[in-house]
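Listing S7. Sequence submitted for prediction.
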Amino acid sequence: MGDCQCRPLGFLIGLPFAFVSLLLSLVGCVVWIIGSVLSCLCPCCACCAGLANLAMSIVKLPIKVLQWFIDLIPC
């Protein structure tokens, strides 16, 4: 048997967690916008760039959560 890429059970189990991480990603968007504005206003402030990078990883969180759950469920 080959690699099974269709795992609807993992997708369904991961949906509530993806929804929670989607809410966190909205917070990440706001933090990213604030961090970007602060880093443009004061380029010497290196922590704002790190804050913006952290916010971008939070924005990508729902996709990572769904992929993680889908990969956990065997065919």
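Caption to Listing S7: primary sequence and predicted structure tokens for the chain studied. The helical segments are 8-41, 46-59, 61-72. The mean pLDDT is 74.
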